[in-house]
């Protein structure tokens, strides 16, 4: 199936998605990778608030190349999601609804996906030039000192992804 | 060199991707390969990196023994080139100065430089930016001589299966067999710089390259790990002498963005 959906997502719409479905995302997505996840985790450990309200939001695991003048962003493909697994179940339990990345997740993450009615999407790894075309604006929300690992807020139009883990526990990477 | 390598792929990689796009039968695999072809086109036209991970700068410096380098230290010159290329070319700075303290150096230096003395009066630099999605999935196996060819096959196929979707398939697989612990890893890295249409000159190694590639592509992993028969676009093996007690095997995995640029001075 093919869907055009808006992020933050409607929970009922996420429930309809199944592994293998093609989704074109419109709206707002946040960007965070290794170092930003470590900082968010440290903030939570210290009892502080996250730099953005995570409830209902989407996180894209990505670190872009620098934008040329006049462009919103540089090359912008997904990074390996598994490196964020240590931090992810806690964020899902706090209300994070969707993730965009590539590659396998741990069982702990997959269980948290089902428990919270979330979806994990894959964007095509290594297609950073193509994916940058769907990003219309980018602003730094926090951790600017991290350079390519800063926490960003993006506005996207028809950003192409594929469902790889769904609310029913499906995993598109599983091979029998 | 930094900019050239990050904006366009060699003719061998393009040909391998075009061929895969024709022969792949899985619908999702075909779709992914078409997107990768489109991605290469956009990268070249818009002067934007093929992949946002513009890599750690790996440089092979083959120095002719008759060459005398004047005016400074060669490694400073290489690092200055990386600094300028990554800054002026809008390439991502992906290097931290210390593996534990992890503060970004801000200019993608230092480069990892492998020097080799060769006969002659030329200096050959091969620049290969290496992304870490695939680098993280690479492995070294210290096999026993009794493990033999079957042990080598199991190691390579196992490493590719473990890498799975994380390494951005379709991959290119570089294999080093023999030598010592560090030598086999270096051979595996160097194998990635050999053109995909240039098989090993050794008949038994060439046969192993063909067999392993066919076996990997039977795994069903496919483009982006979503199913299909294009799991690897190529597999190159470099081999050398080893000890009577050992059979080192290294598997260096690269994604479909197997980039390099070469200059001879």
Please characterize this protein's 3D structure.
The complex is a heterodimer of chains A (176) and B (265). By secondary structure, chain A is α/β, with parallel strands linked by helices. Chain A has one domain (2-165): Fe-S hydro-lyase, tartrate dehydratase beta-type, catalytic domain (fumarase, Alpha-Beta Barrel), CATH 3.20.130.10. Chain A has five helices and seven strands, in the order βαβαβαβαβαββ. Chain A has helices spanning 11-16, 34-45, 88-93, 107-115, 128-132, and strands at 2-7, 22-31, 58-60, 98-101, 119-122, 135-142, 151-165. The model of chain A has no long low-confidence stretch (mean pLDDT 96). By secondary structure, chain B is of the alpha/beta class. Helix content of chain B is 38%, strand content 23%. Chain B is built from eight helices and eight strands; from the N terminus they run αααβαββαβαβααβββ. Chain B has helices spanning 2-7, 11-23, 27-46, 74-88, 132-135, 148-163, 181-191, 203-217; strands at 56-64, 112-118, 123-130, 139-143, 171-179, 232-242, 247-254, 261-264. Chain B has a four-stranded mixed sheet. In chain B, helix 4 (74-88) links the parallel strand 1 (56-64) and strand 2 (112-118). In chain B, helix 2 runs antiparallel to helix 3 (27-46). The longest helix of chain B is centred in the first third of the chain and has 20 residues, at 27-46. Chain B is globular, with a radius of gyration of 19 Å. The two termini of chain B are 13 Å apart. The relative contact order of chain B is 0.21.
């Amino acid at each position: 199936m093919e869907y055009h959906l808006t992020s933050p997502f409607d929970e009922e719409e996420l429930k309809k998605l199944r592994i293998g479905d093609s989704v074109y995302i419109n709206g707002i997505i946040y960007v965070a990778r290794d170092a930003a996840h470590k900082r968010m985790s440290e903030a939570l450990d210290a009892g502080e608030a996250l730099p953005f309200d995570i409830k209902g939001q989407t996180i894209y695991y990505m670190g872009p190349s620098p934008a040329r003048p006049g462009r919103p962003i540089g090359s912008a493909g997904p990074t390996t999601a598994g490196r964020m697994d240590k931090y992810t179940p806690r964020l899902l339990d706090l209300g994070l609804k969707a993730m965009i990345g590539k590659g396998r997740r741990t069982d702990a993450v997959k269980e948290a996906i089902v428990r919270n009615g979330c979806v994990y999407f894959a964007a095509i790894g290594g297609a950073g030039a193509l994916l940058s075309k769907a990003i219309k604006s980018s602003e730094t929300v926090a951790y600017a000192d991290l350079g390519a690992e800063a926490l960003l807020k993006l506005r996207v139009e028809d950003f192409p992804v594929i469902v790889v883990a769904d609310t029913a526990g499906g995993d598109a990477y599983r091979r029998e | 060199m930094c900019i050239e390598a990050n904006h366009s792929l060699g003719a061998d990689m393009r040909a391998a991707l075009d061929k895969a796009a024709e022969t792949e039968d899985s619908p999702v695999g075909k779709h992914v390969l078409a997107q990768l072809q489109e991605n290469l086109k956009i990268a070249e036209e818009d002067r934007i990196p093929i992949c946002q991970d513009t890599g750690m700068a790996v440089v092979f410096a083959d120095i002719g023994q008759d060459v005398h380098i004047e005016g400074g230290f060669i490694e400073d010159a290489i690092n200055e080139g990386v600094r300028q290329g990554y800054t002026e070319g809008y390439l991502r700075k992906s290097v931290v100065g210390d593996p534990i303290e992890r503060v970004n150096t801000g200019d993608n230096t230092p480069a990892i430089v492998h020097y080799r003395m060769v006969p002659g009066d030329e200096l050959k630099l091969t620049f290969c930016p290496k992304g870490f999605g695939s680098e993280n999935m690479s492995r070294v196996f210290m096999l026993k001589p009794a493990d033999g060819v079957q042990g080598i096959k199991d190691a390579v196929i196992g490493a590719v299966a473990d890498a799975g979707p994380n390494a951005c398939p379709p991959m290119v697989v570089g294999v080093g067999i023999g030598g010592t612990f560090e030598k086999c890893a270096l051979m595996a890295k160097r194998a990635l710089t050999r053109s995909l249409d240039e098989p090993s000159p050794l008949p038994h190694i060439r046969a192993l390259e063909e067999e392993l590639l066919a076996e990997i592509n039977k795994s069903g992993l496919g483009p982006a790990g979503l199913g299909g028969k294009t799991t690897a676009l190529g597999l190159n093996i470099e081999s050398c002498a080893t000890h009577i007690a050992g059979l080192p095997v290294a598997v260096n995995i690269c994604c479909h963005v197997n980039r390099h640029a070469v200059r001879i001075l």
